[in-house]
Every structure is written in structure tokens, then in C-alpha cells.
Amino acid sequence: WSIFKQNQLACFSFFFLIFLFIFATVGKVLTRWIVLFDPQLVRLPEKFLPPLTPFTSRIISPEDAPMFNMYFLGTDELGRDIFARMLEGTSVSLTVGFVAVSISIFLGIFFGGIAGYYGKLKFSFITIDTIIMRFVDVMLCFPTFFLILTVVALLPPSIYNIMIVIGITSWMGTARFVRAEFLALRELDYVIAARSQAIPEWRIIFVHMVPNAIAPVLVSATIGVATAILTESSLSFLGFGVQPPDATWGNILADGKQF
Description:
The chain is mainly α. The chain has a domain at 1-24 and 89-240: MetI-like fold (Orthogonal Bundle). The protein is 64% helix and 3% strand. The chain is built from nine helices and four strands. Helix 1 (8-33) crosses helix 2 and helix 2 (82-117) packs parallel to helix 5. It is elongated, with a radius of gyration of 24 Å.
């Protein structure tokens, strides 16, 4: 911690991420479970209000008034509270980011670990390492966003489909990191000693090798979360992501671009 806090940029990023976690958690609670901010409530007489506008309408029922009788970020073309929609959108975007990255990390560790540990084994006339890495090269040949766009366009619009598609199209970099680490680790003394003691291979991989190969994967994962959020927002902006009336950062931007 003493070393970490000396890096001001890292500290700022860490606390900003904590803020987003809290914001997303609170947003999920306050917009879905204890509905204090309703992101889908339409108030047509209150449309296009600027930020920090107090609720003064006599037409709308007091039960439909925003929390604290204030539109903190104004309203959109349907009179919906933009602050409430931002709360919901933050929760959705962070969920997509972390779930998609978790899927990509799992796939990357799985395929990278096989390529690194069992890579010398041959399947017919070609090694397992060659098969996996050539498949990775083929996947990397396709522009990722357009590949995701094509797959999502063929599937029903759903947040679950988006998370899965983003996850299964972004594991290649992780696989390369894990493979490189496994190639180095399998020649180290403690791995050779574990083999000599007839320790099961699954235990060698998951207990001795994966924890020592995870450091570059975590660095890649932090970047992957941001990339997944941007991808989901782009898909929603283009109309292929989460569909209205559910709010995400992407469709909030899409609604606002008309005005």
C-alpha cells in the first residue's frame, strides 16, 4: 500500500473505480429493488427540463414526483429523469464489463494453459499448441467490433447475449499471455519437483502455475473492462444492444443525439 499510494494516477483510478462500484450498486438498489428513482416513468409535461430543475407540476401526481422533488440532471424528450437513467445505465454497463471480462479470462486461461502446458503433444501430425495458436490468429484477423456487431445482429437483443458475445470474442490476448507464462513456468524447478513427486497435473496447473501466471492477466483484464463497457455502449448507441425502455449509457446518448 505504501508503494501504491505514491502513484497518484493509480490512487485516483482506484478511488474512481470504487466510486463507480458504489454508484452502480446504489443505482441497482434504488432503481430496481427500492424504487426511489424510476428511470422508466414518463412525465410528458416535464420534458426537456434543464439540470437542477425543481418539481413544480400540478398536473402530475405527487406520487410520481422525482426523489427530493428535483431533476438533478434534467429530463429527456419523454420527461424521464436522466439522473435515474444514468443510475440504471451505470449498473448495466459495469455488469456487462465485469461479466464479459470474466468470461474472456476463463476462456483465455483455459486455452492458454492447454497451449502452454500440453503444447508439445501431437494431434495427428500437428501439435496442440499450433492448433490453438493458429485458431487465435484467425480470431485476431477479424475486426472485433464488426464481428460482435454481426453476431449480435443475428441474435435477439439481450444484455446476456451481449455479455457472452463480448466475452467469447475477447479472450485471445489473455490466452497469449497465459501461454507465454506457462511456457516459462513449466521449466522452473518447483514445477519439475512437483512432477517428480507424482502430483496430479491438474493440481500442478491450478495450484502452482495459474497463480504465478495471473499477474499479466489482471493487467489485461483492467483494460478489458473499459473496452467491454465501450463496446456495449457502442452497440446500444447503434440500436443492437440493450433495448428501450431499459437504460444504458449507449441508448441515453442515442436519445440525446437527436436534440
